[in-house]
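User: Sequence recovery, please. Input:
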């Protein structure tokens, strides 16, 4: 009887006013995206599980991504999965259905993703997202458009006290270029420690895996590399790697572009932003709202993902968490 009267952990019913608030956020976001020339794509709730496995890097597949997918076998013995990630589906569509279209292609989506989070984590297993992707454009202008679009979205939602962190995974990868012998598992651990700004943990782990002392010291500086554009000059000084320097130069030019936006003051640089879905190749973006313990949106550049489905196409995108945005508005975080 309890099973038919109660919901499993991690999912919720939304009644009346709760439903209205979520639909209102969805309508504001989708209307803005349509106004900016994005076209809607509706993806299936489930499809072949290999789509989501293909979208992950090896270390993600070994450490959590399959575990968080709701997987099942259909009556024909096919391996299927509930939608784990919209971007993976958009990449599949871009490679198989959008051939011949003039680029860039701007699309948006709205719906739920399903992730089998651990019960004790207190996280939702069903997330309502609205997001957008700019496909077929690897330019600085596309990155600029993506960031300005999300800034306009927060303005349309009348949200105040929103902060946007802007990083570039190329900086971190460039620094690790001097340690090609590091295993995927070790790199994942270093990412985890950098993201959590655990300097002592970084130094200890670096010694345990035999990293050179100068590399350990460089890694230990990354957690403090956050702030305004001036932090980029300091970041340049911590490494001589060419790829890391190119990432810094890209962020400098991007900062100049977005500085013209009225809400540019809400953007800050964070080079310790190194964790994501595993397919990011360039800028990485996270949005935070006052009173919300997790990001209310995230995204970035993923120039190699579509190619895993058979057609090379650069892309950048961002997804908003509808439930967290509703909570932020209810907390009085409105202008």
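Assistant: Recovered sequence (335 residues):
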């Amino acid at each position: 009887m309890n099973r038919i009267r109660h919901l499993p952990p991690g999912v919720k019913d939304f009644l009346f006013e709760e439903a209205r608030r979520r639909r209102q956020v969805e309508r504001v976001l989708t209307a803005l995206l349509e106004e900016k020339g994005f076209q809607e794509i509706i993806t299936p709730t489930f499809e072949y599980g290999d789509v989501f496995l293909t979208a992950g890097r090896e270390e993600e597949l070994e450490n959590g991504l399959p575990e968080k997918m709701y997987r099942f076998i259909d009556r024909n013995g096919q391996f299927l999965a509930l939608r784990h990630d919209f971007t993976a589906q958009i990449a599949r569509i871009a490679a198989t259905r959008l051939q011949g279209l003039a680029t860039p292609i701007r699309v948006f989506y709205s719906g739920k993703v399903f992730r089998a989070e651990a019960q004790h984590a207190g996280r939702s297993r069903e997330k309502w997202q609205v997001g957008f992707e700019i496909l077929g454009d690897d330019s600085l202008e596309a990155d600029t458009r993506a960031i300005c679009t999300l800034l306009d979205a927060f303005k349309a939602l009348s949200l105040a006290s929103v902060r946007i962190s802007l990083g570039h995974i190329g900086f971190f990868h460039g620094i690790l270029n001097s340690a090609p012998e590091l295993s995927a598992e070790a790199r994942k651990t270093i990412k985890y420690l950098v993201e959590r700004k655990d300097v002592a943990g970084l130094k200890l782990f670096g010694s345990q895996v035999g990293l050179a002392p100068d590399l350990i010291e460089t890694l230990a500086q990354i957690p403090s590399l956050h702030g305004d554009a001036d932090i980029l000059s300091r970041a340049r000084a911590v490494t001589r790697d060419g790829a890391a320097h190119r990432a810094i130069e890209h962020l400098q030019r991007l900062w100049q572009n977005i500085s013209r936006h009225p809400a540019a003051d809400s953007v800050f640089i964070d080079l310790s932003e190194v964790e994501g879905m595993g397919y990011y190749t360039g800028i990485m973006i996270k949005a935070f709202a006052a009173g919300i313990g997790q990001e209310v949106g995230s995204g970035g550049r993923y120039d190699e993902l579509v190619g895993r489905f058979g057609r090379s196409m650069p892309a950048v995108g961002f997804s908003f968490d509808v439930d967290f945005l509703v909570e932020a508005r209810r907390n009085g975080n409105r202008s």
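Residues 61-65 have pLDDT under 50 and may be disordered.
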